[in-house]
Design brief:
Length: 153
């Protein structure tokens, strides 16, 4: 492929080969790359080629800078994620403790409910009307006492 425009050449080289650096490291027309992976800029390179190599080198520096920024962002995210993970682990432990306590309380409520049902069944027989009246009088008395206490304040 031959292109007159060097920018088009760079774009097509990256698209066709996949990497400009790949073309540079293998050498072009028998020219060997220098220790940085770029073709040596000498008299055997045209001005366009030298300009393109400079742009490629500048783009590599820009891309490396962006990759460094991305890497720093990932490191920061990793730190935040690790903190959140530790917080979630602490909450999981607390939730397990709460779940155990809820289970204990639920068992106690069920036991008390069973006992109250047995007591009500024993004392709420149809022939226990007198006991019901006494309970109602006691409740009314307690309500009267509470109302008097509230008026005082």
């Amino acid at each position: 492929f031959f292109f007159n425009d060097t920018a088009t050449t760079e774009i097509y080289t990256e698209q066709i080969v996949g990497s400009v650096r790949c073309v540079q490291e293998t050498g072009v027309h028998g020219r060997k790359p220098n220790n940085q992976g770029y073709l040596q800029q000498g008299s055997d390179l045209s001005n366009e080629e030298q300009e393109a190599l400079k742009r490629w080198a500048q783009k590599d520096v820009e891309i490396d800078s962006m990759l460094d920024d991305i890497n720093n962002g990932i490191v920061q995210w990793k730190s935040k994620v690790e903190q959140q993970s530790r917080a979630i682990e602490r909450r999981d432990i607390l939730l397990k403790d709460v779940d155990v306590e809820i289970g204990k309380t639920s068992n106690q409520v069920q036991t008390q409910n069973t006992k109250l049902k047995a007591i009500l069944k024993q004392y709420r027989a149809p022939n226990k009307l007198c006991l019901d009246l006494v309970c109602i009088i006691i409740v009314l008395g307690l309500i009267g006492i509470i109302l008097n206490m509230l008026k005082v304040f």
